[in-house]
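Recall that a protein's primary structure is simply its ordered list of amino acids. Everything else, from secondary elements to tertiary packing, is in principle encoded there. The following example makes that idea concrete.
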Amino acid sequence: MSRNKIHGEFAMRVVGRVLAISYVGAFNEEGYMAFVKNAREHAAGLQAQPWGTIDNISNWELSVHATAGLIRQAVQASVKLNRRFIAIVDSKQGFAQSVFLNYVRDIEGLECRLFSSEDAAWQWYRELGLLNELSYGEGIAARGGDA
């Protein structure tokens, strides 16, 4: 059985009750599955209370069609684990934003907001009370992708 090379890179960190994620490049199914594994590990400690994500897609390239359903399924599963908020950040505010938003906008129980900067998304989470005394520059970090 041959295995495809992982495409797509990500970085994530947990700050308070927020999982901050940056996406780079185009993800294939293998890259997306590696991402999901890391995201589940990072979110495990957040599930006792409502939590959210900052999904910075400014450097995300449209993924293969096979990942569209996977993205939606993963977000739906995270809502069942008490995820209540998603902040989509796209400094370019391009087509990728529309595509990503279409994957998640109508998921029941998830409040979705669009931002052009991470600073604005962090401010929203401060207002919601999801950040503790840590500044948004601190937290538990991980990287993944074509390593």
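The first strand starts at residue 9 and ends at 15. The chain has one domain: 9-131.
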